[in-house]
From TrEMBL, chains A, B:
Family: Belongs to the alliinase family.
Pfam family, one: Alliinase_C
Taxonomic source organism: Ziziphus jujuba (Chinese jujube)
Location of the Alliinase C-terminal domain: 6-363
Gene from which this protein is expressed: LOC107428581
Keyword set includes rRNA-binding: no
The entry's keywords: Aminotransferase, Pyridoxal phosphate, Transferase
GO-annotated molecular function: carbon-sulfur lyase activity; transaminase activity
Protein name: L-tryptophan--pyruvate aminotransferase 1
Quaternary organization: Homodimer.
The protein's required cofactors: pyridoxal 5'-phosphate
GO-annotated biological processes: amino acid metabolic process
Species classification: Eukaryota, Viridiplantae, Streptophyta, Embryophyta, Tracheophyta
């Protein structure tokens, strides 16, 4: 049986939320949350007030993004918001589709999400480092980066000054990396899937400076799906509320807080992975600097949600090699990078993660046996 | 204050679900429904098994669609499924975008949902009656029709035999019209919003004959939003379950069943509207034949979710005229039709509906006063 690690299903956090089952319980009766509308006076008219408030409170507690005076747009995951941002930045459309770039290695799904409808508004143009046209463009900046966990800034060196930016900050949370400043970009996207692990709810949000951009993103989500599940908005607000309340309540020390749990879990998993990788010698892993985390009040390494494995020696296709050893991964080519790399999820359930480590160890066994 | 009737928010059913609040209650704990996945072996891998089962049981009870041996694809409302169907029917794309048509008057949002991304795969081509090109096309058939409640069949008269069809059956439920047969088309879409009134949950589903089309629709929803809220899927399954169980339980006569309630409510509202319209003499309304409903076991008229008002006499813009009388509607032009028509929701909350009737009566007062 293959490990289903390909999508990065964030099941690692399930064990934490099991302990919080009752505290995070939501109850929805037959007649609640029936309307399309949340607040017709708001730019994002389908955003529930309680979710907006919870998002803002959570960012204020964590300190990872500026929210005051900003518009919040809710989406069916950050996937829908990425497309909403492309739409907002390209309408009314010019004579040709605008190039969308991202520094390689980049998230494997950006290309598909940009091009699947063959839009006349925008088109995928690949690696931002290779982009040198003097024309309007959109650069997606993913930080920490998926797949390799690196901290990113915009890289296109254009004199045309016609670049616009979308910041995908899905992994800018204290369990993955040091919170070094409150991010303050024009469009910043986050997701419930990666912050708390509730991928099944499909809730993402963008923090947007400009009202007109927020309005266009809202229009996109209206045309795409007439809003976003109210049931999941309510659930996300409840769970975020439990998290930020845990940081208000000084006396509460019976249960570990979520981000402490997440940070400890990720640090342990990375330590175990680095140990196995060092033992078998087939692979190398990125190294991350220690940075001071304003949230934890201490220095920390990055512990990304994915391991960006590089195969050493003569083997040229890391994904294929892993597959031969019954480990499912996404190969480097899909990230605009070298096939000697492959991405493996660090967020799987404990038994799956352990299985992954054991299979990595088995590879060592095979090599020794030959 | 204007009546916010423009979108057709189905709040009329709230009074029914209030009585069922407890019976329809869903409880979701902190660790439930966290994964992206529902069943990786299924074509639609993010469809919860309980929702698939509930959808099939509900259609079997109502008798409005064939579900046995069909694939179910869940979407974030039927809006997302409409776009998924366009994508599924046009990939791999030919040298030019395929024309999408619908008989006028057609649902006002189809044009925008088809064209907002300027897709190279498909483009809106307007009224199906006017389409006479000998080339591939997609015809959307909405039955009962939005805005005018008529029962529809495909109308394009093409000898090229290259037409494909999407059936939007959002209103093919017993509260709106007679169920005369179990529909059995290639792609049929339904929505939780119009069947039970739970618009806030954004749950729609398509019943699809061909596995490859179902797979492509699933791919679209993956690229668009990586699936559909599990919380809302669970809630929709629960509420559908309460409905079909009510039809199994012969002894249960304490509470009216949902479709009986809906049918009675819509019949009453249409009767009151026809009375007011007859009294003031400004407007006319469509007439519907009486048909035998296999579900109710009796003859019934249609009681559509929207009233398609036509203004009589010299006034040329019905929407403008209504707006002057503080009634918000969507004018005929937006439905590819005559501006002497306008669409008004029949599904608003009771106080809003009563307000609408009173304002219609006031118009009569003004005319008499001149």
């Amino acid at each position: 049986m293959f490990l289903f690690d390909d999508r990065g299903d964030p099941m690692a956090y399930e064990q934490y939320w099991k302990k919080m089952d009752d505290k995070c319980k939501v109850v929805i009766t037959g007649s609640q949350l029936m309307s399309y509308l949340s607040d017709p006076r708001k730019v994002c008219w389908f955003l529930e007030a309680e979710l907006e408030e919870a998002i803002k409170k959570l960012h204020r507690v964590v300190g990872n993004a500026v929210v005051d005076g900003r518009h919040i747009v809710v989406g069916t995951g950050s996937t829908q918001l990425y497309q909403a941002a492309l739409y907002a930045l390209t309408t009314p459309g010019g004579p040709q589709p605008i190039s969308v770039v991202c520094a390689a290695p980049y998230y494997s799904q950006y290309e598909q999400e940009t091009d699947y409808l063959r839009s006349g508004l925008y088109k995928w143009a690949g690696d931002a480092y290779a982009f040198d046209k003097e024309e309007p463009y959109i650069e997606v900046v993913t930080s920490p980066n998926n797949p390799d966990g690196s901290i990113r800034k915009a890289v296109v060196n254009s004199t045309s000054n016609e670049g616009k930016h979308i910041y995908d900050l899905a992994y800018y949370w204290p369990q993955y990396t040091a919170i070094t400043a409150a991010a303050d970009y024009d469009i910043m996207s986050f997701t419930f899937s990666k912050s708390t692990g509730h991928a099944g709810s499909r809730i993402g949000w963008s923090i947007v400076k400009d009202e007109e951009i927020a309005r266009k993103m809202t229009n996109f989500i209206e045309y795409s799906s007439i809003g976003v599940s109210k049931d999941s908005q309510h659930r996300a607000a409840t769970i975020m509320g439990v998290i930020y309340n845990s940081y208000q309540d000084i006396k509460s020390d019976s249960t570990e807080n979520f981000f402490e749990f997440g940070h400890r879990l990720m640090a342990e998993r990375w330590s175990r992975l680095r140990e196995v990788v060092a033992m078998n010698g087939f692979f190398s892993l990125p190294k991350f600097p220690r940075e001071f985390c304003l949230f934890n009040g201490d220095y920390t390494e990055s512990y990304p949600a994915f391991a960006w494995l590089k195969i050493n020696g003569d083997i040229e296709d890391c994904e294929k090699f892993l597959k031969e050893n019954k480990i499912l991964s996404r190969g480097g080519k899909r990230f605009g990078s070298d096939p000697r790399f492959a991405r493996v999820s660090m967020l799987s359930r404990e038994d799956v993660f352990e299985n992954f480590l054991n299979r990595l160890l088995t590879i060592k066994g095979i090599r020794n046996g030959h």
